Amino acid sequence: MSTALELAGHDLSDALWSGRLLLSDPDAVRDAHLAFYRAGAEVAITASYQVTFDGFARHGIDAEETARLLRASVSLARSAASDVDGQRWVAASVGPYGAMLADGSEYRGRYGLSKQQLMEFHRPRIDVLAQSEPDLLAVETIPDVDEAEAVLEVVRGSGVPVWLSYSIRGDRTCAGQPLEEAFEVAAGIDEVIAVGVNCCAPEDVASAVAVAGKTGLPVVVYPNSGEEWDARERAWTGDGTGFTALTGEWTGNGARLVGGCCRTGPDAIEVLARALAG
After folding, report:
1. pLDDT tens digit string along 4-44?
2. Residue of 41, 104, 197, 223 with fewest CB within 10 Å of its CB?
3. What phi and psi, each to the nearest 5 degrees, are found at residue 37?
4. If residue 267 lies in a helix (H) or strand (E), which one and from where to where?
């Protein structure tokens, strides 16, 4: 989403990131979804990743308006889907606590908060998104098993399907926990329909798929292009030309929902869709 918006000329350098455009230019958000759908995407992830009651309050946006923007994130993706043929799905993004801080801490975890505090942070946003009737919730870029447990406790019993996706480095979460331990937290929670990884290096995906597949659930993967984010400089570095070359390995290992995260725009998704169709 952010890549598509930046390619369209939008400045996303402030702390509200793509969520700000839900307020200032919602048509741009709809257009970005439509571009991905037309490129062959079957699932849109909403622009709610950075939209939280706490984070928006810091910028003078009250709770009523924040709730409206969360609902709009779902309706904009749904509206874009109506402009293309075939079935399309809307996954409402639930980003980690660290995304609200906008300081790169979603790539570290270990915020110093209790499970109860994390539940209290996530619950209001999840409640609004669930009531907005997405097809599922994308609990994504979670760096820490503790936060995953808190979010899943909030969604337990809601009846809204969820995928749980960690951000990782190598064979561990960004907070350093083994992936076997990370995926185990989904056991026994009926709402979880897939587990996997996102916002990670493409070369880390194949081994993560093998571990996630041991849960018996479908596996979701959507890594970055291969470039790396410098949180201090707020800039991307490196080469992202090989993103789609590894797709066959991921699906061969059992991945069933495949896409792209940071720095993967509609052009990359078009290549990916063609490869998967083949």
Report:
1. 998 889 988 888 888 899 999 999 999 999 999 999 999 99
2. 104
3. -60, -45
4. helix 266-277
Length of the chain: 278
Residue with tokens 């495949």: 258
Residue 49 near residue 70, CB atoms below 8 Å: no
CB atoms within 10 A of CB 133: 13
Cβ burial of 35 (10 Å; 0-12, 13-18, 19+) is buried
Q: Are residues 21 and 48 in contact, defined by beta-carbon separation less than 8 angstroms?
A: no
Q: Which two tokens stand for residue 54?
A: 């706490």
How does pLDDT run across 132-172, given as a tens digit for each residue?
999 999 999 999 999 999 999 999 999 999 999 999 999 99
Q: What pTM did the predictor assign?
A: 0.93
Q: Which two tokens stand for residue 189?
A: 């929670």
Residue 262 labelled as part of a binding site: yes
Question: By the 8 A CB rule, do 240 and 277 touch?
Answer: no
- 199 known ligand binder: yes
**Tens digit of pLDDT for each residue in 206-256?**
999 999 999 999 999 999 987 777 777 777 777 665 667 788 889 998 999
The C-alpha atoms of residue 241 and residue 227 are separated, in whole angstroms, by: 9
Domains of the chain with CATH codes: 1-277 (3.20.20.330)
CA distances from 20 to 11, 66, 206, 270 (A): 10, 11, 34, 26
Both tokens assigned to 3: 């890549």
